[in-house]
Design brief:
Two copies of one chain form a homodimer. With about 325 residues, the first copy, chain A, is of the alpha/beta class. Chain A contains twelve helices and twelve strands. Chain A folds into three domains: about 1-55, 434 Repressor (Amino-terminal Domain) (Orthogonal Bundle); about 65-165 and about 300-330, Response regulator (Rossmann fold); about 170-295 and about 330-335, Response regulator (Rossmann fold), CATH 3.40.50.2300. In chain A, strands 2-1-3-4-5-11 form a six-stranded parallel beta sheet, sandwiched between helices. Chain A has a six-stranded mixed beta sheet with strand order 7-6-8-9-10-12, sandwiched between helices. In chain A, α5 (about 85-100) links the parallel β1 and β2. The longest helix of chain A is centred in the N-terminal third of the chain and has 17 residues, at about 85-100. Chain A starts with 11 loop residues before the first helix and ends in a 6-residue tail after the last strand. The interface between A and B is large, with 56 and 56 residues. The first copy, chain A, binds a DNA duplex (16 and 16 nucleotides) through α2 and α4.
Chain lengths: ~325, ~325
DNA sequence: GTGAAAGCGCTAACAG
DNA sequence: CTGTTAGCGCTTTCAC
């Protein structure tokens, strides 16, 4: 007869009416705040199930002055080598957000173009932000800070009071390098690192150098190349490097590693007989290589999830950790045997 | 003296008061709906600038029953070869959304796990959805459709009334294949294609076959391999294929292409002298190869932006295009000379 | 052309 | 423990 329960989504009022209660009681039953009789609460939950009630998040938002959204700053100009990382990280965040009934909003940024971030802040579309690739000059963090927007960054940050979540690149690289130092003459261990604009490369470098210090030796400067961010620099670096006859070469990322492997193949050098190879970053692109390449492994899903978890914690009032470092794994494979 | 304009964000009421108008008039001035004196409107805009007023999107949302968000379904289990595509696509969407004052919300999906999508729908967090990788069984589209959620899919869809935006893979592959047919004996042109689960591979196949039909010939079945989604299938396919002495091999994606190149190098075959190589998908991972690889190029940023634009159009009441096909570019490089 | 008032669906005092 | 009453900040009839 009365098909009022047919299409329209039920709201607090409906379930209140159905139970002969008031909206506020129902609201309390749901939120768990304030005193409420256990019995009433159960009734409410039952009714919720029956009517398939779901709260209207927008109304909740307006009332609580919270959006239940977090923003995720991702670079619009990432290289293809990095893209899988951001993508994976993002899924980790989305997963964690979902568990806590939040959502992740995409914020694209480019060098000198933070307009999307500004928009999102001004429109109050998010409660907090995760910065997946901090700007070299800390401008993103500053903008966030100036606007009183809680945020956490993945990686290093030049900004003062940034809360950090990151894979432990320093110790990962350090441990991998230490392993290689046991196996190769210290003065014939080479390093090939990408753009110094990315803080991760600084961490890698730090780890590399630390391992030498630990061993009481120091790196052969003519075998250490950083800031390799162009084809030209790459070929120059490699030819200079090879003259020095390195016994083992550590690559900062898999793109560099691939290029190097191609070059070595050209020159008829074989891995690991003539030269050993290791990479600081493990991607599927190297899977097809024979021999398989020794490398560091980080869990990007977990990294994203942890970052989201930390941020949501802060938003919930939890005292945040200054810095959270996630574990790594070292995979010794045939390329360094 | 009165520092009321110091910290608190101004709202409609404030600017109304400042001008001696009512909230509703100001609201009209901003939205442009309803009659309003041009003069008043200007005053309002001026005042908005001065007070740096920005509407509270949440309140607007509640009132209008719109979220100003769109959801973007991305796979949580994409391969690394695909990740750059999704990432790039996403930035295109974010960009377009920003221009139209909307935001993109991430929705991660896996095979048989649409829980994040369900959550977002039930929580009414978005006004519409873009599906970047439709499920093989159309389950995502069905869920959306059943819930009356407007959506558009990137790629093909098995679901009936899906609105589509895609790169024109069929004609791209067709044209590239046609070019190769001019240059190579039809019965010595090979194809190596990834998982048939992905609709894009079906399109690629269709394009490949069409080119043969156009030329009045047909493909050598013993040189056509589809569904190559594992290491094992790959090596089997390649060894069978090579026995057949192909003059030119077309790879469905760059990951396959890379593996193939590695294999050919192993066998001492050189490109393009012994065998020509082309790829249907162009990524930076092949950049390091010498010779450079002939391939199809699609603009993922534009694809994402177009999809977002279409969806926002629908949400705005525009009659949508059934299917929008985006242009491609063919880059003939040394690998097929 | 403009203003007053109701309402979007929920939360949060404040009473009872 | 529960009900009543105000809002949250904007849009939108409906009068004037």
């Amino acid at each position: 007869m009365n098909n009022k329960n047919a299409q329209k989504k039920p709201q607090l009022e409906d379930i209140a009416a159905a139970l002969g209660l008031s909206k506020s009681t129902v609201s309390r039953a749901i939120s768990g705040k304030g005193r409420i009789k256990a019995e009433t609460r159960e009734k409410v939950f039952e009714c919720i199930k029956e009517l398939n009630y779901r709260p209207n998040m927008i109304a909740k938002s307006l009332s609580e002055q919270k959006t239940y959204n977090i923003g995720v700053v991702i670079p619009m100009d990432s290289s293809e080598a990095e893209a899988p990382f951001f993508q994976t990280c993002l899924t980790g965040m989305a997963k964690e957000c979902a568990v806590r009934d939040h959502d992740a909003v995409v914020i694209g940024t480019e060098r000198d173009n933070l307009s999307q971030l500004t928009r999102v802040i001004e429109n109050r579309k998010v409660d907090g932000v995760i910065v997946t690739r901090p700007a070299a000059d800390g401008s993103i963090e500053k903008l966030l800070d100036d606007n009183g927007m809680p945020f956490i960054v993945i990686g290093r940050s030049v900004h003062e009071n940034s809360l950090i979540v990151d894979s432990d690149h320093v110790n990962g690289c350090r441990e991998l390098t230490s392993y290689l130092l046991l196996q190769n003459p210290a003065d014939r261990l080479a390093l090939l690192l990408g753009s110094t604009e990315f803080t991760v490369n600084k961490s890698r470098y730090t780890g590399f150098v630390s391992a030498f210090m630990d061993a009481g030796s120091h790196a052969n400067e003519r075998l250490v190349f950083t800031g390799i961010d162009s084809e030209l620099k790459f070929s120059k670096a490699v030819s200079v490097m090879l003259e020095e006859q390195p016994r083992c070469i550590v690559c900062g990322d898999d793109m560099l590693c691939m290029k190097l492997l191609a070059k070595l193949a050209d020159l008829g050098k074989s891995v690991p007989q003539d030269v050993r190879i290791a990479s600081f970053y493990d991607s599927a692109y190297l899977d097809s290589y024979s021999p398989p390449i020794t490398s560091l492994i980080f869990n990007a899903v977990e990294l994203g999830a942890t970052a989201a978890s930390q941020l949501l914690g802060i938003l919930g009032g939890t005292a945040p950790a200054e810095e959270t470092l996630l574990p790594y794994e070292i995979l010794i494979r045939r390329s360094t045997m």
